[in-house]
Amino acid sequence: MKLYVKIALFVVLFIAFSGILAALIMFNKKHTDTAKAKPDFVVTAIVLQKEFEDNEAAASARYINKIIEVTGSIVSITRSDTTNTNISLKTGNDMSSVICASRSIVDPSKFNAGEEITLRGECSGFLMDVLLKNCAVLVKRK
């Protein structure tokens, strides 16, 4: 076999091995425990949604991929699948809300519309609604 073929084969195998290793590392990466994590920002649902509505680019730069502690009034609770529960918080805008996705809520019937709640999660963006993932319930008040 010629030298350039051996070098090309080595480069291809090295890239393939590196890709597989990177995929395994990312697949096994643990999520941040938001219940114990220190929040980067503490805001109300109304303020958070208003900031995204007023200037989405600035709010995205400030909040996305940050841990946010948000307080608001529950509008609705839905199960998106067998593992996720979505809690929508009132923002004062009928067209938009703050949606907090949580895997730690086992029994959504413990929560009622109108209750005041504080959640902590990681902001993942704004699509008519502000989206928080990996949320943990901190405080529930009637």
Estimated radius of gyration:
21 Å
Uncertain residue segments: none
The number of distinct structural domains comes to 2
Shape summary:
elongated
Structural class: alpha/beta
- Into which percent range does the helicity of residues fall? 25-40%
Please, could you describe this protein's structure?
There is one protein chain. With 142 residues, the protein is α/β, with parallel strands linked by helices. The protein has two domains: 1-30; 41-141, Nucleic acid-binding proteins (OB fold (Dihydrolipoamide Acetyltransferase, E2P)). It is 30% helix and 37% strand. It contains three helices and six strands. The protein has helices at residues 3-27, 45-54, 56-63; strands at residues 41-44, 67-79, 85-89, 98-102, 116-127, 129-141. β2 (67-79) and β3 (85-89) form a beta hairpin. α2 crosses α3. The protein is elongated and about 75 Å long. The protein starts with a helix and ends with a strand. The relative contact order is 0.17.
Summed up:
With 142 residues, the chain is of the alpha/beta class.
SSE inventory with pairings:
Blueprint: H1 3-27, E1 41-44, H2 45-54, H3 56-63, E2 67-79, E3 85-89, E4 98-102, E5 116-127, E6 129-141
Parallel strand pairs: 1-2, 4-6
Antiparallel strand pairs: 2-3, 2-5, 3-4, 5-6
Keywords:
142 residues, OB fold (Dihydrolipoamide Acetyltransferase, E2P), 2 domains, five-stranded mixed β-barrel, 6 strands, elongated
